Amino acid sequence: MIKKAIAIMTSGGDSPGMNAAARAVVRTALYEGVQVYGIKDGYDGMLKDDIIELTSRSVSDIIQRGGTFLGTARCPEFKTPEGRRKGYENLKKRGVEGLVIIGGDGSLTGGSLLSKETGIPIVGLPGTIDNDVWGTDYTIGCDTAANTIVDALNKLRDTASAHRRIMIVEVMGHKSGWLAMESGIAGGAEYVLVPEVKYDLDQMCEDIKAQYAAGKRYSIIVIAEGAGDGMGLGKIVEEKTGIDTRVSVLGHIQRGGSPTVEDRMKASMLGEKAALALISGASDVVFGFEQGKVVSINLFDSVNNKKTLDPELVRLARVLA
Ligand SMILES: Nc1ncnc2c1ncn2[C@@H]1O[C@H](COP(=O)(O)OP(=O)(O)OP(=O)(O)O)[C@@H](O)[C@H]1O
Ligand SMILES: O=P(O)(O)OC[C@H]1O[C@](O)(CO)[C@@H](O)[C@@H]1O
Ligand SMILES: [Mg+2]
Description:
magnesium, Rossmann fold, 321 residues, binds magnesium ion, alpha/beta, 2 domains, binds adenosine-5'-triphosphate, seven-stranded mixed sheet, cytoplasm, metal-binding, binds 6-O-phosphono-beta-D-fructofuranose, nucleotide-binding, ATP_PFK
């Protein structure tokens, strides 16, 4: 049971909805009479002792904003036991009794080590556009990022069709193809290339040529960054097909923007759960969603397993192409 204070942080790549989740954690804890500290810039701020007390007003006017009002970072020093001990000491001296971490697989891995080494209770929330946290089919921010990509695909399709071009769109996802697959299917892409699935470039180019010969006016290829370089692919595809090809690398536009209703709602629900669970004595859990329902996942199971891309989505993308 937590009597006095918890802390909250965001870590890894920012994702739209992190603010909504943090707001829910802060307001729930305060409602329960528990003090809340905000750690700035992820593990970096924990090590540098950049920690502030939060009030209900600290989280006003943020539910509609992308990014994270706490700031985030990637912190190599936290990967060492000494770094984690230093961070823990900064929490301990303030009387922090438990920690909510909002971040991706890496951030939650850091949290699991901190828990194991220091015993501090930790509750994680999956915050990443990559949707690659094991045990939950939802991560905060992926829906907003996918909507941003679909908006781009709609626009690119207009111009591709006008010029009878092939349009290659490189999206984020270094190790995971979830974001590419979801946005590719929802955006009606002809091909979705992801790091998890091998693709036959020659066959793809032959198919596109045949489709154009049969009258097709455009072809959209979504490629996750981890499946190859969009620019390089564009050159090869143009060479092999002889069809005018253009490439758009969407980049960090995918990480920003006002969160969708889905991300605001689910982040708010998860934030409340996280605060209540931590305060009532839970530790080493991650809250997520499975089939529309909130679920709690063991933190160590979550970080020790790799979420695999749903083969049904891979199949669907092929069928609908
Ligand atoms: N194996 C690890 N041990 C300790 N800390 C880690 C580990 N992996 C990651 N972290 C910590 O978490 C931070 C964020 O991790 P990472 O860069 O993998 O992002 P993430 O949380 O997976 O988010 P995203 O992939 O969405 O950007 C790292 O900079 C580091 O401080
Ligand atoms: O620009 P950064 O912060 O290094 O992050 C890029 C990476 O972060 C992610 O967007 C996840 O947040 C990955 O898909 C991408 O590879
Ligand atoms: Mg990650």
